[in-house]
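Hi F.,

I've been meaning to write this up properly since the lab meeting, where we talked about keeping a consistent format for the predictions we share between groups. The idea is simple: the sequence comes first, exactly as it goes in, then the structure tokens exactly as they come out, then a line or two of notes. No screenshots and no reformatting. I'm using this chain as the first example so we have something concrete to point to.
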Amino acid sequence: MTRKWQPFPLGTTPAVLVRSVPSVLRRTTGLKNDGTESVGGADTYKVTGQVAASVVAPLLGVSASGKTVSFTIWVGQKDSILRRARVDGPVAPKEPSDIARTVELSKFNEAVTIAPPATG
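Output, unedited:
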């Protein structure tokens, strides 16, 4: 474990995980309201549960470990907007037991300028 940021495998993006939250939630067991937290300045509900690694592995572009992992989302109290999604535990074989994948969303309704990459 390097404790450093690592890139997602080619063919996957954090957006895939975010877009798939509703389908993952439908297959999550033991869902419970785990209190409230502030995420990016917004008051949120923290919802936790357990899901089979096989459910999230395709979203992350890895093969499944056959284990169960923790799945947590933070949803805005006032606007019900997803603010953060996190998967804790080894989704793929041979991953460390303390691996975590987190996607945090922020700056809603703000203009974004995307510059094309330099050519040549």
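Notes:
The two ends are 37 Å apart (CA to CA).
The chain has one domain: 14-104.

If this format works for you, I'll send the rest the same way.

G.
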